[in-house]
Specification:
The complex is a heterodimer of chains A (601) and B (84). With 601 residues, chain A is an all-alpha fold. Chain A has 25 helices and two strands. Classes of the chains: A mainly alpha (601), B mainly alpha (84).
Chain lengths: 601, 84
């Protein structure tokens, strides 16, 4: 069977599965729509949370980023998993005990203020909408790369599938499709990794393979990789940091607290029956996430080595990397390279006209590598590789069978669709529950609210589809913004609501606004006001990364610090919260008396 | 808050404090701040600091959450605030 038919078959089968689940899991009440009836098993919820969490970026881009960054790529690994420790201990069980449907509802009730919940709704909508643009473009990318249809058609099909299970099934439909999507994406990620690890090291477990010796030699894979990349002028793989150590520290911290503060993840913990389940469910979520996240660095290192050995035969033989005959002849390059060149993710340009492909770092800070390259008559790097190739073309680089390539296509789509659905749930519940029921129409009936929820969901799908089709030119920077907002506004507000009984509404609102403001200010200074080109105002803050060399992506943790500080100062000079609020905080802190999540105000 | 409530909360906070110290030490400590020192030690083919940053920290995070969940259940029962 040819590759294209195989891909259509596998992707078609997974879509049929999702639609089947949508028909089976329709939501008949607001409790089912917002919280899957509050009856999801903690392990099931853990699996759904993992799919909810692992986005197109985790699946398609992360391994490639790590391959490019080397050791420094660990900031994504630690940042996007370490946040679950914070979520499990500081937020999830208490929010579950609180027993309401949404994050802004907690903030509004705890800080006895509609203003507080409105600020929270604003933060939630900005974070979730910016995040969803990336998912929708991810759906388009996966479709166009693998199925040979246009990116637009891909987004329409994706919208249609999500519509079926998210609008009719709400959280209930989303939960069970996410479980199915998790299974698809984790198989798609690990199977190629196992093959490659087996091939390179003889060890089928990628996590062990990365630390093993190259098959048939005494040299470890990482030392081999270090030696090859250093010789070719790249930074040493196992020690290159992401900017300064301080930047890596703050970046990791920002991703951790951003992860813990993202509403679409927090919401998943409203679906388990008890507080006890919320705690263990976070552990299960991290187990399922870590299966992919500990495989990713192995995929990164191994695919990088594979790529180098594909274009330079001396990598395998251990001979001179700069020998003329070591670099591959352009006409002999494998079919997968030709295929991916068509997508623009891979580019080859014969700068020195010798008909061979030289792949090295021509902007190296290593004079020895540059001198050798010049002596060999190399006139610049001739191969540019998009980071996404590492996962997308991985099965082809490793010469795996067609069904594995088809599975990777289905896995990429599962990752993007499951995260998009979770975000849509967060957006539509904030609109129908916090805005419509909470502010504009408090007397709406349950049936009316359920309908409002479904309509908000449908509208959110159309808007996100539109944004996916017409990405506002800043799509790449948006995920960083989502984490920055979650870290600087939502996480501190929720945490203080639980851990500081005396925190009052003035402190919380001032803190959220201050955290949000400094973060947006710093990000916009680098990337333009609302990412509009030409409106950057770097001179005003004293140049790029002027705050101790910290990059805008890493700034969320600083925003959170500002949030906490402003909140405590304002809290000290204003009057303490009313007695019944303090009693409520005490009630939230103990598990006894928890009930299934319900929405009553 | 009554005395049991206070004692329950301080037991909870002390557990959280301990876990957060370990959480910090293995990720920000072993994975970032002391990575160079640890890299002088090898764990199979892995330099140890690199291993903590790209593998070990994640395994320990999982262990920390399950340890937390188990300990909290014990504390809940000890102070008789567990769910029925």
């Amino acid at each position: 069977m040819d590759l294209q038919t195989m891909i259509y078959l596998v992707v078609g089968a997974t879509f049929a599965l999702y639609i089947g689940i949508a028909i089976w899991a329709r939501a008949g009440s607001t409790s089912e729509f917002y919280a899957a009836g509050g009856s999801v098993h903690p392990v099931t919820n853990g699996m759904a949370t993992a799919a909810d969490w692992m986005s197109a970026a985790s699946f398609i881009s992360m391994a490639g980023l790590i391959a490019n960054m080397g050791y420094g790529g660990a900031l994504f690994l630690m940042g996007w998993t370490g946040g679950y420790v914070l979520l499990a201990m500081l937020l999830a069980p208490y929010l579950r005990k609180f027993g309401k449907f949404t994050v802004p509802q907690f903030i509004g009730d705890r800080f006895y203020s509609k203003t507080a919940s409105t600020v929270a709704v604003f933060c939630l909508l900005t974070a979730s909408i910016t995040y969803i643009i990336g998912q929708m473009t991810g759906v388009g990318v996966a479709f166009s790369r693998f199925l040979g249809v246009s990116s637009e058609t891909g987004i329409y099909v994706g919208m249609g599938i999500v519509f079926m299970y998210a609008v009719f099934g709400g959280m209930k439909g989303i939960t069970y499709t996410q479980v199915a999507q998790y299974i698809v994406l984790i198989l798609a990620y690990t199977i190629p990794a196992i093959f490659i690890s087996m091939h390179l090291t003889g060890n089928p477990i990628p996590q062990l393979g990365l630390g093993a010796n190259m098959a048939g030699t005494d040299a470890s894979l990482l030392s081999k990789l270090d030696q090859v990349v250093v010789d070719l002028g790249f930074g040493k793989y196992t020690t290159t940091t992401a900017g300064s150590t301080l930047n890596m520290f703050v970046y990791t911290m920002s991703l951790m607290i951003g992860t813990a503060g993202l509403p679409h993840v927090i919401m998943r913990f409203f679906t388990v029956p008890t507080v006890k389940d919320a705690r263990s469910s976070a552990g299960w979520a991290l187990v399922f996430i870590a299966i992919l996240y500990t495989t990713a660095p192995a995929v990164a290192g191994m695919a990088k080595l594979n790529l180098h050995s594909t274009v330079n035969s001396a990598v395998v033989t251990g001979g001179d990397l700069f020998a003329p005959e070591a670099s591959i002849k352009a006409e002999d390059r494998p079919d997968w390279m030709k295929r991916w060149e068509k997508t623009g993710l891979l580019k080859f340009e014969d700068k020195n006209g010798d008909g061979r492909i030289q792949y090295y770092n021509d902007k190296s800070t290593n004079p020895e590598a540059l001198a050798k390259a010049e002596a060999a008559g190399w006139k610049g790097n001739e191969l540019s590789v998009n980071a996404d190739i590492i996962v997308l073309a991985n099965p082809e680089i490793a010469l795996l069978p067609n069904w594995v390539i088809a599975l990777v296509a289905a896995g990429g789509l599962a990752a993007a669709l499951s995260t998009a659905a979770g975000l849509l749930m967060a957006i539509s519940s904030a609109v129908s529950h916090d805005l419509i029921k909470g502010i504009f129409a408090p007397n709406i009936s349950e049936k009316g609210e359920l309908l409002a929820g479904k309509i908000s969901m449908a509208v959110a799908i159309v808007i996100s589809g539109y944004l996916g089709l017409n990405p506002p030119g800043f799509a790449a920077g948006t995920v960083a913004l989502a984490f920055g907002i979650a870290a600087s506004s939502l996480f501190p507000a929720i945490m203080m609501g639980i851990f500081s009984k005396k925190m009052n509404k003035e402190g919380a609102i001032a803190g959220m606004l201050a955290g949000l403001f400094v973060t947006l200010f710093y990000v916009f200074a680098h990337k333009g006001i609302f990412f509009i080109k030409g409106t950057e105002f770097l001179p005003l803050i004293g140049g790029a990364n002027s705050f101790f060399g910290i990059t805008p992506e890493a700034f969320g943790a600083i925003g959170a610090l500002v949030n906490f500080s402003v909140a405590f100062i304002v809290d000290k000079v204003t009057k303490e919260p009313p007695e019944h609020i303090q009693a409520m905080v005490e009630a939230v802190r103990t598990p006894r008396g928890s009930t299934a999540v319900r929405g009553a105000h | 808050m009554d005395d049991t409530g206070k004692a329950y909360w301080s037991a909870t906070l002390s557990l959280l404090g301990k876990i957060l110290v370990i959480w910090f030490l293995i990720s920000f400590g072993a994975g970032i701040l002391f990575v160079d020192v640890l890299n002088t030690i090898m764990l199979g083919g892995y330099p140890l600091g690199f291993w903590f940053a790209q593998q070990g920290s994640m395994y320990i995070f999982i262990a920390l959450i399950f340890y937390y969940a188990r300990k909290m259940n014990e504390i809940d029962r000890q102070f008789d605030v567990h769910e029925e």
